[in-house]
Write a structure and sequence with these properties.
about 550 residues; 24 helices; mainly alpha; two-stranded antiparallel ribbon
Protein backbone atom coordinates (compact mmCIF):
# COMPACT_ATOMS: atom_id res chain seq x y z
CA UNK A 1 0.00 0.00 0.00
CA UNK A 2 1.51 3.31 -1.02
CA UNK A 3 1.62 6.45 1.03
CA UNK A 4 2.44 6.82 4.70
CA UNK A 5 0.64 8.24 7.65
CA UNK A 6 2.78 11.03 9.12
CA UNK A 7 2.78 9.89 12.70
CA UNK A 8 -0.22 8.53 14.47
CA UNK A 9 -3.21 10.85 14.62
CA UNK A 10 -4.31 12.03 18.03
CA UNK A 11 -6.78 9.25 18.83
CA UNK A 12 -8.92 11.50 20.97
CA UNK A 13 -9.60 13.90 18.10
CA UNK A 14 -12.62 13.58 15.82
CA UNK A 15 -12.13 12.27 12.31
CA UNK A 16 -12.00 15.23 9.93
CA UNK A 17 -14.03 14.59 6.83
CA UNK A 18 -11.72 16.65 4.59
CA UNK A 19 -8.39 15.74 6.25
CA UNK A 20 -5.56 14.71 3.87
CA UNK A 21 -5.27 10.97 3.40
CA UNK A 22 -2.82 8.57 1.72
CA UNK A 23 -3.10 7.72 -1.96
CA UNK A 24 -4.23 4.43 -3.44
CA UNK A 25 -1.31 2.61 -5.09
CA UNK A 26 -1.11 0.50 -8.23
CA UNK A 27 -1.22 -2.56 -5.96
CA UNK A 28 -4.49 -1.24 -4.50
CA UNK A 29 -6.01 -1.30 -7.99
CA UNK A 30 -4.60 -4.80 -8.58
CA UNK A 31 -6.27 -6.05 -5.39
CA UNK A 32 -9.50 -4.41 -6.49
CA UNK A 33 -9.29 -6.26 -9.83
CA UNK A 34 -8.89 -9.60 -8.05
CA UNK A 35 -11.83 -8.80 -5.79
CA UNK A 36 -13.97 -7.99 -8.83
CA UNK A 37 -13.12 -11.41 -10.30
CA UNK A 38 -14.17 -13.01 -7.00
CA UNK A 39 -17.44 -11.08 -7.00
CA UNK A 40 -18.10 -12.14 -10.59
CA UNK A 41 -17.74 -15.78 -9.53
CA UNK A 42 -19.89 -15.01 -6.49
CA UNK A 43 -22.79 -13.91 -8.65
CA UNK A 44 -22.34 -16.54 -11.32
CA UNK A 45 -22.76 -19.18 -8.63
CA UNK A 46 -25.61 -17.28 -6.99
CA UNK A 47 -27.63 -16.25 -10.07
CA UNK A 48 -27.20 -19.19 -12.42
CA UNK A 49 -30.36 -20.58 -10.80
CA UNK A 50 -32.33 -17.94 -12.76
CA UNK A 51 -31.65 -19.30 -16.25
CA UNK A 52 -32.07 -22.85 -14.95
CA UNK A 53 -35.37 -22.06 -13.19
CA UNK A 54 -37.74 -23.26 -15.91
CA UNK A 55 -35.87 -26.58 -16.28
CA UNK A 56 -35.60 -27.14 -12.53
CA UNK A 57 -39.25 -26.24 -12.00
CA UNK A 58 -40.36 -28.78 -14.61
CA UNK A 59 -37.91 -31.49 -13.51
CA UNK A 60 -38.69 -31.26 -9.79
CA UNK A 61 -42.38 -30.29 -10.08
CA UNK A 62 -42.07 -26.93 -8.30
CA UNK A 63 -44.19 -23.73 -8.33
CA UNK A 64 -43.07 -20.13 -8.90
CA UNK A 65 -43.18 -19.56 -5.13
CA UNK A 66 -40.93 -22.61 -4.61
CA UNK A 67 -38.45 -21.24 -7.13
CA UNK A 68 -38.64 -17.82 -5.48
CA UNK A 69 -37.70 -19.47 -2.19
CA UNK A 70 -34.73 -21.31 -3.77
CA UNK A 71 -33.58 -18.12 -5.47
CA UNK A 72 -34.11 -16.05 -2.34
CA UNK A 73 -34.51 -17.12 1.29
CA UNK A 74 -32.87 -20.57 0.96
CA UNK A 75 -29.66 -18.75 0.12
CA UNK A 76 -30.25 -15.34 1.68
CA UNK A 77 -31.02 -16.29 5.29
CA UNK A 78 -27.81 -18.27 5.73
CA UNK A 79 -25.84 -15.72 3.75
CA UNK A 80 -27.10 -12.97 6.04
CA UNK A 81 -26.79 -14.84 9.33
CA UNK A 82 -23.32 -16.25 8.78
CA UNK A 83 -22.29 -12.84 7.54
CA UNK A 84 -22.63 -11.67 11.15
CA UNK A 85 -19.92 -13.84 12.78
CA UNK A 86 -17.89 -13.91 9.57
CA UNK A 87 -18.07 -10.13 9.38
CA UNK A 88 -16.66 -9.92 12.89
CA UNK A 89 -14.01 -12.47 11.96
CA UNK A 90 -13.09 -10.22 9.03
CA UNK A 91 -12.63 -7.41 11.56
CA UNK A 92 -10.37 -9.54 13.76
CA UNK A 93 -8.47 -11.98 11.50
CA UNK A 94 -6.80 -12.15 8.09
CA UNK A 95 -9.32 -11.03 5.51
CA UNK A 96 -7.32 -12.58 2.68
CA UNK A 97 -7.31 -16.04 4.28
CA UNK A 98 -10.97 -15.83 5.18
CA UNK A 99 -11.98 -14.86 1.64
CA UNK A 100 -9.95 -17.64 0.01
CA UNK A 101 -11.53 -20.26 2.32
CA UNK A 102 -15.02 -18.91 1.73
CA UNK A 103 -14.55 -18.89 -2.05
CA UNK A 104 -13.52 -22.54 -2.04
CA UNK A 105 -16.53 -23.45 0.13
CA UNK A 106 -19.21 -21.76 -1.97
CA UNK A 107 -17.67 -23.10 -5.19
CA UNK A 108 -17.78 -26.67 -3.88
CA UNK A 109 -21.38 -26.27 -2.73
CA UNK A 110 -22.35 -24.89 -6.15
CA UNK A 111 -20.81 -27.95 -7.81
CA UNK A 112 -22.67 -30.22 -5.37
CA UNK A 113 -25.94 -28.55 -6.44
CA UNK A 114 -25.44 -30.43 -9.70
CA UNK A 115 -25.98 -33.75 -7.93
CA UNK A 116 -29.26 -32.89 -6.18
CA UNK A 117 -32.47 -34.75 -7.02
CA UNK A 118 -35.22 -32.90 -5.09
CA UNK A 119 -36.10 -29.56 -3.53
CA UNK A 120 -34.78 -30.49 -0.08
CA UNK A 121 -31.34 -31.45 -1.42
CA UNK A 122 -31.12 -28.35 -3.60
CA UNK A 123 -32.18 -26.23 -0.62
CA UNK A 124 -29.33 -27.65 1.48
CA UNK A 125 -26.83 -26.95 -1.28
CA UNK A 126 -28.09 -23.37 -1.65
CA UNK A 127 -27.72 -22.90 2.11
CA UNK A 128 -24.09 -24.02 1.82
CA UNK A 129 -23.49 -21.54 -1.01
CA UNK A 130 -24.94 -18.85 1.25
CA UNK A 131 -22.57 -19.69 4.11
CA UNK A 132 -19.52 -19.60 1.83
CA UNK A 133 -20.52 -16.39 0.08
CA UNK A 134 -21.07 -14.71 3.45
CA UNK A 135 -17.28 -14.27 3.63
CA UNK A 136 -17.07 -12.26 0.40
CA UNK A 137 -18.37 -8.76 0.98
CA UNK A 138 -17.33 -8.28 4.65
CA UNK A 139 -13.75 -9.13 3.71
CA UNK A 140 -13.81 -7.25 0.41
CA UNK A 141 -15.42 -4.09 1.80
CA UNK A 142 -12.93 -4.02 4.67
CA UNK A 143 -9.95 -4.61 2.35
CA UNK A 144 -11.10 -1.89 -0.04
CA UNK A 145 -11.55 0.56 2.84
CA UNK A 146 -7.93 -0.10 3.86
CA UNK A 147 -6.55 0.12 0.32
CA UNK A 148 -8.42 3.27 -0.76
CA UNK A 149 -8.86 6.66 0.96
CA UNK A 150 -12.31 7.86 1.89
CA UNK A 151 -12.61 10.24 -1.07
CA UNK A 152 -12.24 7.29 -3.51
CA UNK A 153 -14.13 4.71 -1.50
CA UNK A 154 -17.52 4.91 -3.22
CA UNK A 155 -15.82 4.64 -6.62
CA UNK A 156 -13.74 1.63 -5.50
CA UNK A 157 -16.76 -0.06 -3.92
CA UNK A 158 -18.79 0.65 -7.05
CA UNK A 159 -16.11 -0.97 -9.23
CA UNK A 160 -16.10 -3.99 -6.91
CA UNK A 161 -19.90 -4.08 -7.04
CA UNK A 162 -19.79 -4.20 -10.84
CA UNK A 163 -18.92 -7.88 -10.41
CA UNK A 164 -22.52 -8.36 -9.27
CA UNK A 165 -23.86 -7.37 -12.67
CA UNK A 166 -21.10 -8.92 -14.76
CA UNK A 167 -21.46 -12.20 -12.89
CA UNK A 168 -25.24 -12.12 -13.10
CA UNK A 169 -25.08 -11.52 -16.84
CA UNK A 170 -22.42 -14.14 -17.49
CA UNK A 171 -24.40 -16.68 -15.45
CA UNK A 172 -27.32 -16.45 -17.88
CA UNK A 173 -25.15 -16.97 -20.94
CA UNK A 174 -23.11 -19.80 -19.41
CA UNK A 175 -26.16 -21.53 -17.97
CA UNK A 176 -28.06 -21.50 -21.26
CA UNK A 177 -25.01 -22.60 -23.25
CA UNK A 178 -24.21 -25.51 -20.94
CA UNK A 179 -27.84 -26.67 -20.66
CA UNK A 180 -28.45 -26.71 -24.40
CA UNK A 181 -25.08 -28.24 -25.27
CA UNK A 182 -25.40 -30.95 -22.61
CA UNK A 183 -29.00 -31.82 -23.49
CA UNK A 184 -28.12 -31.97 -27.19
CA UNK A 185 -25.23 -34.33 -26.46
CA UNK A 186 -27.15 -36.41 -23.90
CA UNK A 187 -30.91 -36.17 -24.69
CA UNK A 188 -31.68 -39.09 -22.36
CA UNK A 189 -29.43 -37.82 -19.55
CA UNK A 190 -25.66 -37.83 -19.31
CA UNK A 191 -23.16 -39.56 -17.02
CA UNK A 192 -24.54 -40.26 -13.54
CA UNK A 193 -27.98 -39.36 -14.88
CA UNK A 194 -27.15 -35.65 -14.95
CA UNK A 195 -29.35 -33.38 -17.04
CA UNK A 196 -28.30 -30.01 -18.47
CA UNK A 197 -29.14 -27.99 -15.37
CA UNK A 198 -27.14 -30.40 -13.19
CA UNK A 199 -24.12 -30.05 -15.49
CA UNK A 200 -24.36 -26.25 -15.40
CA UNK A 201 -23.97 -26.15 -11.60
CA UNK A 202 -20.92 -28.41 -11.73
CA UNK A 203 -19.27 -26.47 -14.57
CA UNK A 204 -19.48 -23.07 -12.90
CA UNK A 205 -18.59 -24.30 -9.41
CA UNK A 206 -15.25 -26.00 -10.02
CA UNK A 207 -13.20 -22.95 -11.26
CA UNK A 208 -13.77 -21.07 -8.00
CA UNK A 209 -11.53 -23.46 -6.09
CA UNK A 210 -8.60 -22.45 -8.31
CA UNK A 211 -9.35 -18.73 -7.99
CA UNK A 212 -9.23 -19.20 -4.22
CA UNK A 213 -5.50 -19.96 -4.53
CA UNK A 214 -5.01 -16.65 -6.39
CA UNK A 215 -6.83 -14.76 -3.63
CA UNK A 216 -4.58 -16.37 -1.01
CA UNK A 217 -1.55 -14.66 -2.62
CA UNK A 218 -2.80 -11.12 -1.85
CA UNK A 219 -1.15 -8.99 0.84
CA UNK A 220 -3.10 -8.10 3.98
CA UNK A 221 -3.12 -4.26 4.42
CA UNK A 222 -2.57 -2.43 7.69
CA UNK A 223 -6.03 -2.07 9.19
CA UNK A 224 -7.19 1.55 9.60
CA UNK A 225 -4.08 3.24 8.18
CA UNK A 226 -6.00 5.02 5.42
CA UNK A 227 -8.04 6.84 8.06
CA UNK A 228 -5.19 7.48 10.46
CA UNK A 229 -6.71 5.09 12.99
CA UNK A 230 -4.36 2.10 12.94
CA UNK A 231 -6.08 -0.82 14.65
CA UNK A 232 -4.02 -3.58 16.33
CA UNK A 233 -4.69 -7.26 15.65
CA UNK A 234 -7.28 -8.96 17.82
CA UNK A 235 -5.63 -11.41 20.28
CA UNK A 236 -8.35 -14.11 20.08
CA UNK A 237 -10.24 -13.79 16.76
CA UNK A 238 -11.63 -17.33 16.71
CA UNK A 239 -12.90 -17.19 20.27
CA UNK A 240 -14.85 -14.08 19.31
CA UNK A 241 -16.07 -15.85 16.16
CA UNK A 242 -17.32 -18.81 18.21
CA UNK A 243 -19.07 -16.46 20.62
CA UNK A 244 -20.72 -14.59 17.74
CA UNK A 245 -21.78 -17.85 16.12
CA UNK A 246 -23.43 -18.94 19.36
CA UNK A 247 -25.41 -15.68 19.36
CA UNK A 248 -27.39 -16.71 16.27
CA UNK A 249 -27.86 -20.46 16.70
CA UNK A 250 -30.70 -21.63 18.98
CA UNK A 251 -30.71 -22.84 21.74
CA UNK A 252 -27.38 -21.10 22.42
CA UNK A 253 -29.23 -17.82 21.92
CA UNK A 254 -31.31 -18.57 25.00
CA UNK A 255 -28.24 -19.37 27.07
CA UNK A 256 -26.63 -16.14 25.95
CA UNK A 257 -29.74 -14.20 26.93
CA UNK A 258 -29.85 -15.96 30.30
CA UNK A 259 -26.27 -14.92 30.98
CA UNK A 260 -27.28 -11.28 30.44
CA UNK A 261 -30.00 -11.59 33.09
CA UNK A 262 -33.60 -12.74 33.60
CA UNK A 263 -35.04 -9.67 31.84
CA UNK A 264 -32.95 -10.34 28.73
CA UNK A 265 -34.12 -13.97 28.67
CA UNK A 266 -37.77 -12.97 28.95
CA UNK A 267 -37.39 -10.43 26.14
CA UNK A 268 -35.63 -12.99 23.96
CA UNK A 269 -38.33 -15.61 24.55
CA UNK A 270 -41.12 -13.10 23.97
CA UNK A 271 -39.57 -11.86 20.75
CA UNK A 272 -38.92 -15.41 19.55
CA UNK A 273 -42.53 -16.31 20.30
CA UNK A 274 -43.86 -13.28 18.45
CA UNK A 275 -41.71 -14.04 15.39
CA UNK A 276 -42.78 -17.71 15.48
CA UNK A 277 -46.44 -16.68 15.65
CA UNK A 278 -46.00 -14.37 12.68
CA UNK A 279 -44.21 -17.09 10.69
CA UNK A 280 -46.99 -19.58 11.50
CA UNK A 281 -49.63 -17.12 10.39
CA UNK A 282 -47.83 -16.54 7.08
CA UNK A 283 -47.38 -20.28 6.56
CA UNK A 284 -51.11 -20.79 7.05
CA UNK A 285 -51.86 -17.90 4.70
CA UNK A 286 -49.47 -18.87 1.88
CA UNK A 287 -48.93 -22.59 2.40
CA UNK A 288 -45.17 -22.05 2.05
CA UNK A 289 -43.45 -23.60 5.06
CA UNK A 290 -39.81 -23.33 3.86
CA UNK A 291 -40.01 -19.60 3.08
CA UNK A 292 -41.54 -18.38 6.30
CA UNK A 293 -39.75 -20.78 8.64
CA UNK A 294 -36.43 -19.64 7.14
CA UNK A 295 -37.37 -15.97 7.37
CA UNK A 296 -38.63 -16.37 10.94
CA UNK A 297 -35.45 -18.15 11.97
CA UNK A 298 -33.40 -15.41 10.31
CA UNK A 299 -35.12 -12.51 12.02
CA UNK A 300 -35.01 -14.19 15.43
CA UNK A 301 -31.29 -14.87 15.02
CA UNK A 302 -30.64 -11.25 14.03
CA UNK A 303 -32.53 -10.01 17.10
CA UNK A 304 -30.51 -12.33 19.35
CA UNK A 305 -27.25 -11.19 17.78
CA UNK A 306 -28.09 -7.50 18.08
CA UNK A 307 -29.09 -7.95 21.73
CA UNK A 308 -25.83 -9.73 22.50
CA UNK A 309 -23.80 -7.14 20.59
CA UNK A 310 -25.41 -4.41 22.65
CA UNK A 311 -24.20 -6.06 25.84
CA UNK A 312 -20.71 -7.11 24.68
CA UNK A 313 -19.68 -4.32 22.29
CA UNK A 314 -21.84 -1.28 23.05
CA UNK A 315 -19.78 1.05 20.85
CA UNK A 316 -20.32 -1.07 17.74
CA UNK A 317 -24.00 -1.47 18.61
CA UNK A 318 -24.32 2.29 19.08
CA UNK A 319 -22.78 3.14 15.71
CA UNK A 320 -24.79 0.51 13.80
CA UNK A 321 -28.09 -0.41 15.44
CA UNK A 322 -28.27 2.78 17.49
CA UNK A 323 -27.76 5.11 14.52
CA UNK A 324 -30.97 5.99 12.62
CA UNK A 325 -28.92 7.14 9.62
CA UNK A 326 -27.35 3.68 9.32
CA UNK A 327 -30.66 1.85 9.74
CA UNK A 328 -32.58 4.04 7.28
CA UNK A 329 -29.81 3.78 4.68
CA UNK A 330 -29.59 0.02 5.08
CA UNK A 331 -33.31 -0.76 4.96
CA UNK A 332 -33.96 1.89 2.31
CA UNK A 333 -31.34 0.33 0.07
CA UNK A 334 -32.62 -3.13 1.04
CA UNK A 335 -35.90 -2.25 -0.67
CA UNK A 336 -33.99 -1.13 -3.76
CA UNK A 337 -32.25 -4.52 -3.64
CA UNK A 338 -35.62 -6.28 -3.28
CA UNK A 339 -36.69 -5.02 -6.71
CA UNK A 340 -33.23 -5.54 -8.21
CA UNK A 341 -32.91 -9.15 -7.03
CA UNK A 342 -36.43 -9.93 -8.18
CA UNK A 343 -35.77 -8.55 -11.67
CA UNK A 344 -32.41 -10.33 -11.87
CA UNK A 345 -33.97 -13.66 -10.97
CA UNK A 346 -37.26 -13.49 -12.87
CA UNK A 347 -36.41 -11.55 -16.07
CA UNK A 348 -35.12 -14.67 -17.83
CA UNK A 349 -38.04 -16.98 -16.82
CA UNK A 350 -40.42 -14.14 -17.76
CA UNK A 351 -38.90 -13.78 -21.22
CA UNK A 352 -38.95 -17.55 -21.72
CA UNK A 353 -42.51 -18.25 -20.51
CA UNK A 354 -44.44 -15.01 -21.12
CA UNK A 355 -42.74 -13.69 -24.26
CA UNK A 356 -41.89 -17.14 -25.57
CA UNK A 357 -38.24 -16.34 -26.36
CA UNK A 358 -35.69 -19.13 -26.95
CA UNK A 359 -33.47 -19.77 -23.91
CA UNK A 360 -30.16 -19.27 -25.74
CA UNK A 361 -31.26 -16.01 -27.38
CA UNK A 362 -32.72 -14.45 -24.26
CA UNK A 363 -29.78 -15.57 -22.14
CA UNK A 364 -27.28 -13.93 -24.47
CA UNK A 365 -29.24 -10.67 -24.78
CA UNK A 366 -30.39 -10.45 -21.16
CA UNK A 367 -26.95 -11.52 -19.95
CA UNK A 368 -25.17 -8.83 -21.95
CA UNK A 369 -28.00 -6.43 -21.13
CA UNK A 370 -27.71 -7.00 -17.39
CA UNK A 371 -23.91 -7.00 -17.32
CA UNK A 372 -23.54 -3.76 -19.28
CA UNK A 373 -26.43 -1.89 -17.68
CA UNK A 374 -25.46 -2.93 -14.17
CA UNK A 375 -21.80 -2.11 -14.76
CA UNK A 376 -22.60 1.33 -16.16
CA UNK A 377 -25.10 2.05 -13.42
CA UNK A 378 -22.89 1.08 -10.53
CA UNK A 379 -19.80 2.88 -11.88
CA UNK A 380 -21.70 6.05 -12.80
CA UNK A 381 -23.51 5.93 -9.47
CA UNK A 382 -20.27 5.57 -7.54
CA UNK A 383 -18.57 8.46 -9.32
CA UNK A 384 -21.59 10.72 -8.99
CA UNK A 385 -21.94 9.77 -5.31
CA UNK A 386 -18.31 10.67 -4.58
CA UNK A 387 -18.69 13.96 -6.45
CA UNK A 388 -21.87 14.88 -4.58
CA UNK A 389 -20.30 14.01 -1.25
CA UNK A 390 -17.57 16.64 -1.73
CA UNK A 391 -20.31 19.28 -1.77
CA UNK A 392 -22.83 17.71 0.58
CA UNK A 393 -22.14 15.23 3.41
CA UNK A 394 -25.42 13.47 2.57
CA UNK A 395 -24.98 13.75 -1.20
CA UNK A 396 -24.56 10.02 -1.70
CA UNK A 397 -28.10 9.42 -0.43
CA UNK A 398 -29.43 11.37 -3.42
CA UNK A 399 -27.95 8.68 -5.66
CA UNK A 400 -29.63 5.96 -3.60
CA UNK A 401 -32.94 7.79 -4.02
CA UNK A 402 -32.39 7.75 -7.78
CA UNK A 403 -32.07 3.97 -7.49
CA UNK A 404 -35.60 3.90 -6.03
CA UNK A 405 -37.38 6.35 -8.31
CA UNK A 406 -35.56 5.77 -11.59
CA UNK A 407 -36.64 2.16 -12.35
CA UNK A 408 -40.40 2.70 -11.80
CA UNK A 409 -41.36 3.83 -15.31
CA UNK A 410 -39.05 1.38 -17.14
CA UNK A 411 -40.48 -1.54 -15.15
CA UNK A 412 -44.02 -0.38 -15.84
CA UNK A 413 -43.36 -0.17 -19.59
CA UNK A 414 -41.03 -3.14 -20.02
CA UNK A 415 -43.19 -5.68 -18.23
CA UNK A 416 -46.48 -4.71 -19.88
CA UNK A 417 -45.33 -4.65 -23.51
CA UNK A 418 -45.29 -7.58 -25.92
CA UNK A 419 -42.64 -5.83 -28.03
CA UNK A 420 -39.44 -7.78 -27.45
CA UNK A 421 -37.07 -4.92 -28.32
CA UNK A 422 -38.90 -2.53 -26.00
CA UNK A 423 -38.79 -5.16 -23.25
CA UNK A 424 -35.02 -5.51 -23.57
CA UNK A 425 -34.53 -1.72 -23.70
CA UNK A 426 -36.67 -1.01 -20.64
CA UNK A 427 -35.05 -3.84 -18.69
CA UNK A 428 -31.66 -2.27 -19.51
CA UNK A 429 -32.73 1.14 -18.22
CA UNK A 430 -34.39 -0.27 -15.07
CA UNK A 431 -31.32 -2.30 -14.10
CA UNK A 432 -28.93 0.58 -14.83
CA UNK A 433 -30.85 3.10 -12.74
CA UNK A 434 -31.33 0.65 -9.88
CA UNK A 435 -27.61 -0.18 -9.90
CA UNK A 436 -26.58 3.43 -9.27
CA UNK A 437 -27.57 3.08 -5.62
CA UNK A 438 -25.27 0.27 -4.45
CA UNK A 439 -21.88 1.98 -4.20
CA UNK A 440 -23.42 5.07 -2.64
CA UNK A 441 -25.30 3.11 0.03
CA UNK A 442 -22.35 0.85 0.84
CA UNK A 443 -19.90 3.76 1.16
CA UNK A 444 -22.33 5.66 3.38
CA UNK A 445 -22.56 2.78 5.87
CA UNK A 446 -18.77 2.34 5.89
CA UNK A 447 -18.32 6.03 6.69
CA UNK A 448 -20.65 5.79 9.70
CA UNK A 449 -18.43 3.43 11.76
CA UNK A 450 -14.86 3.17 13.05
CA UNK A 451 -12.30 1.12 11.05
CA UNK A 452 -12.39 -1.84 13.44
CA UNK A 453 -16.16 -2.11 12.92
CA UNK A 454 -16.22 -2.18 9.12
CA UNK A 455 -16.63 -5.93 8.71
CA UNK A 456 -19.49 -5.95 11.20
CA UNK A 457 -21.03 -2.89 9.54
CA UNK A 458 -20.85 -4.66 6.18
CA UNK A 459 -22.58 -7.70 7.67
CA UNK A 460 -25.31 -5.45 9.08
CA UNK A 461 -25.67 -3.66 5.73
CA UNK A 462 -26.05 -6.98 3.96
CA UNK A 463 -28.74 -8.00 6.43
CA UNK A 464 -30.80 -5.34 4.72
CA UNK A 465 -29.90 -6.37 1.19
CA UNK A 466 -30.48 -10.06 1.92
CA UNK A 467 -33.08 -10.51 4.69
CA UNK A 468 -35.12 -7.66 3.20
CA UNK A 469 -34.08 -7.69 -0.46
CA UNK A 470 -33.06 -11.17 -1.50
CA UNK A 471 -35.25 -13.11 0.95
CA UNK A 472 -38.39 -11.37 -0.25
CA UNK A 473 -37.77 -10.08 -3.79
CA UNK A 474 -37.77 -13.35 -5.78
CA UNK A 475 -40.29 -14.95 -3.41
CA UNK A 476 -42.86 -12.12 -3.51
CA UNK A 477 -42.87 -12.13 -7.30
CA UNK A 478 -43.26 -15.92 -7.34
CA UNK A 479 -45.99 -15.95 -4.68
CA UNK A 480 -48.01 -13.20 -6.35
CA UNK A 481 -47.51 -14.93 -9.69
CA UNK A 482 -49.00 -18.12 -8.24
CA UNK A 483 -51.90 -16.22 -6.64
CA UNK A 484 -52.70 -14.52 -9.95
CA UNK A 485 -52.18 -17.69 -11.98
CA UNK A 486 -54.61 -20.21 -13.44
CA UNK A 487 -54.87 -23.98 -13.57
CA UNK A 488 -54.04 -25.53 -16.95
CA UNK A 489 -54.36 -29.30 -17.37
CA UNK A 490 -54.22 -29.74 -13.61
CA UNK A 491 -51.07 -27.64 -13.20
CA UNK A 492 -50.74 -24.12 -11.81
CA UNK A 493 -49.46 -21.63 -14.40
CA UNK A 494 -48.36 -18.42 -12.71
CA UNK A 495 -48.74 -14.84 -13.94
CA UNK A 496 -45.21 -13.45 -13.80
CA UNK A 497 -46.29 -10.16 -15.34
CA UNK A 498 -48.48 -9.34 -12.33
CA UNK A 499 -45.80 -10.60 -9.96
CA UNK A 500 -43.07 -8.36 -11.36
CA UNK A 501 -45.27 -5.26 -11.61
CA UNK A 502 -46.07 -5.63 -7.90
CA UNK A 503 -42.48 -4.54 -7.16
CA UNK A 504 -43.42 -0.92 -7.82
CA UNK A 505 -45.35 -0.89 -4.53
CA UNK A 506 -42.14 -0.88 -2.43
CA UNK A 507 -40.96 2.50 -3.82
CA UNK A 508 -42.89 4.82 -1.44
CA UNK A 509 -41.61 3.01 1.66
CA UNK A 510 -38.01 3.07 0.40
CA UNK A 511 -38.28 6.76 -0.47
CA UNK A 512 -39.52 7.69 3.00
CA UNK A 513 -36.62 5.84 4.67
CA UNK A 514 -34.02 7.44 2.40
CA UNK A 515 -35.37 10.94 3.00
CA UNK A 516 -34.90 10.27 6.72
CA UNK A 517 -31.35 9.05 6.01
CA UNK A 518 -30.58 12.19 4.00
CA UNK A 519 -31.54 14.35 6.97
CA UNK A 520 -29.57 12.38 9.58
CA UNK A 521 -26.35 11.21 7.84
CA UNK A 522 -24.31 14.47 8.24
CA UNK A 523 -24.73 14.63 12.01
CA UNK A 524 -24.18 10.90 12.41
CA UNK A 525 -20.89 10.98 10.49
CA UNK A 526 -19.66 14.11 12.25
CA UNK A 527 -20.19 12.59 15.70
CA UNK A 528 -18.78 9.07 15.15
CA UNK A 529 -15.87 9.34 17.58
CA UNK A 530 -17.83 11.20 20.25
CA UNK A 531 -20.70 8.68 20.22
CA UNK A 532 -18.28 5.75 20.23
CA UNK A 533 -16.42 7.26 23.18
CA UNK A 534 -19.67 7.80 25.04
CA UNK A 535 -20.39 4.08 24.56
CA UNK A 536 -17.01 3.11 26.04
CA UNK A 537 -14.73 2.98 22.97
CA UNK A 538 -11.12 3.97 23.84
CA UNK A 539 -10.61 6.44 20.97
Amino acid sequence: MSGTVEGERNKSAPIERDAPSPEASSYSWYVLMVLVVVYILNFIDRQILSILAVDIKADLGLTDADMGFLGGAAFAVFYALFGIPLGRLADNWSRVKLLSIGLALWSIMTALSGFTRNQAELTMARMGVGVGEATASPTAYSLISDYFPKRQRATALAIYSSGLYIGGGVSLFLGALIVQSWNAAYPQGGPLGLSGWHAAFVAVGVPGVLVGLWVASLREPLRGAMDGLVTPAHPTPFRTFAQDLSMIVPPFTLWGAYQRGPAALVINLATGGAIAAFAYMMIQLTGNFPQWSAVGFGFYAVFSWASSLRAKDPATFRLIWGTPAFICTTIGYGLVALAAYALTFWSAPYAETVLGLPKKELAFILGANGALSGFLGVIIGGRVADALRTKNPAGRILVVIMGVVGPIIPIGIGYTTDNVILFYAMNFVAVMLGATALGAAAATTQDLVLPRMRGTATAAFFLGTTLVGLSFGPYIVGQISDLAGTMVDGKLVGDLRVGILSLIAVAPVALALLIAAYRTVPTAERTIVERARDAGEPV
